[in-house]
Amino acid sequence: MEKLGPGDPQRIGAYRLLARLGAGGMGHVYLARSERGRTVAVKLVREELAAQEEFRERFRQEVQAARRVGGYWTAPVLDADTEAAVPWVATGYVAGPSLQQVVGHDHGALPERTVRILAAGLAHALKDIHATGIVHRDLKPSNVLVTIDGPRVIDFGIARALETVTDGGLTRTGALVGSPGFMAPEQVRGDRITPACDVFCLGSVLAYAATGALPFGTANSGVHALMFRIAQEEPDLDGVPEGIADLVRDCLRKDPAARPSLDRVLERTGADDTVSDGRALDPWLPSALVAQLGRHAVRLLDAEDPEGAGSADEAGAPGPPAGRQGSGPHENPGPGPTPEHAPAADESAQRPALPPAPATAPAAAPAPPPPGRPGEGPPVNHLPTMVAGQGAPPAPRQLPAAGAVPHPQAQTPPPPYPAYGYPQQHPQPHPAYGGLGSTPPYGPPPYGTTPPYGPQQPQQPRGNGRSTALLVVIALVVALAAGGSVYALMQDGGDDRADDGAGPTQGTSAPPTTPGPSPTTSQPDTSSPADGTIPTGYLGTWTTTIDNADGEHSRSLTIQQGEPGDTILSLVADGPTKGGGDYHCVFEGRLTASPGADGALEIGPSSVKVGQPSTACTPGAATEVTLLPDGTLERVNTSSGERLTYTKQ
């Protein structure tokens, strides 16, 4: 969440904007309040999309359908103006973090009972959505919000409007719309989409909730390779509790007809005994998460108009809404996965100034951390919602929409508010939660005008084939390192924090001072001893330092021998705090899979073993550790792409 900038509207329709929640492939999302004081989330469509009649017509239809969705398990569509110069839609606020935030950062893998109730709630939500003729087609952890009463599903149906547009504005059949790690095989192939597509996505979400890992792995080896695995290979369900493993496996059947119906899912989860009328009959979350939600509710009460009592919109008549010229229409760390964090960064960025917000918008390695172990976000599995054939979303716009009341704020907006709620979206580039921005040692943030899959390549012509042959072509294209590009359209929550949290202060430009060994042409030792799977070259203690305005921050990383599931990594972070004094953090991480052909180690979400002070150390996201040819060791946050290089002692 960010403060409103000079290019943001001050009002949209009857809603006073409080903060910016993010920007996605469809547009910008804002936290707002109605004139009667209700907190909502408002999505403002990108002007270039609004100019395309095909998109506008589909958006109009999808909003109408979404408003018919009833039940207790979804965030309601409250208001919309699909005829405005720049259309918008307002949805109810859900006071809770996304499932991505809970599993990827706050808590880690959830216990079996919690996952079973999660499955029941999501099945009820999908039934309500399907009853109106909508297929969600983008169910993923960042589109599932966690509340005291149960899960809530957001962003149903609206994203389907993106199917109508290509760069040339032409209607397209069989477009790929979805998030790579949570697509169904028929989405990958461009086949006909039915409600069974959402059942497959449900299986992926449940596997992630139970393990902290995705059943088909990450997109680290390429998005096309990930989609090939989804369409052709069996899921990896290691770590899924035995009591729900069969259900998850059945949901992940390749053949849509072989997947269970939602009624059958409800039967197999014992929904009649656990949920009713939109709420769990008994407490369903671990106590630590319940306490977190309580703290969030308290923060919500402190949210106030950023302009204060004397703001222009309160002093006079409300200005015209964004996109309407002259006439107005009718009405959790927050971002996503992050690595461990120690205060080598601006600690002020860690304090939520505003609570999270909901809206229609929205976010691993194998083997997960055990239930209750704080985790980090899944690596590149929460890739933003994709639409094949489109480029990356534009940077945040600098000018208000036509007819919008410009926000009277200063030149440069302050750092974003870390918060969670509805919706969860990938923010546009900005200093990350905890003060870890795009400065060294972690490199540039993964999102923005550059597609999250790497530097943008010239887009090449794509065919409209919808058969399995397309999948084969995609696989060949990946193998030959050629072919068309698939870009992400940002739609879910994320954040740019770096390795194990101890990063430089915002604005710091000095790279880490890592005393490196003299260059060598010899290759590192990647052989594995008999008593474990980790190549011997990784074993031992590695160090680096980070210099910023607060002083020097040391990092000491130790890797020991072990098997998948064992704790093999320990990181000690020491340094000065911003307000004076020192911090000492110790983090641990588990090996999630046997090293592949390249020898890289996949480390799951980390946990804090020592935190002095406790507020200075927070767990981090899944990482990948690689032994470089020059004898140094590189640790990369697989979610954000941030990296840090260590030297062996």
UniProtKB/TrEMBL annotation:
UniProt keywords, alphabetically: ATP-binding, Kinase, Membrane, Nucleotide-binding, Transferase, Transmembrane, Transmembrane helix
Entries under InterPro entries matching the protein: Kinase-like_dom_sf (IPR011009), Prot_kinase_dom (IPR000719), Protein_kinase_ATP_BS (IPR017441), Ser/Thr_kinase_AS (IPR008271)
TM stretches of this protein: 469-490
Amino acid composition bias (Low complexity), ranges on this chain: 308-329, 419-433, 501-511, 519-531
Binding site for ATP: K43
Amino acid composition bias (Pro residues), ranges on this chain: 353-377, 441-455
Domain Protein kinase stretches: 15-285
Region (Disordered): 306-465, 492-538
GO terms, molecular function: ATP binding; protein serine/threonine kinase activity
Name of this chain's protein: Protein kinase domain-containing protein
Provenance organism: Streptomyces luteogriseus
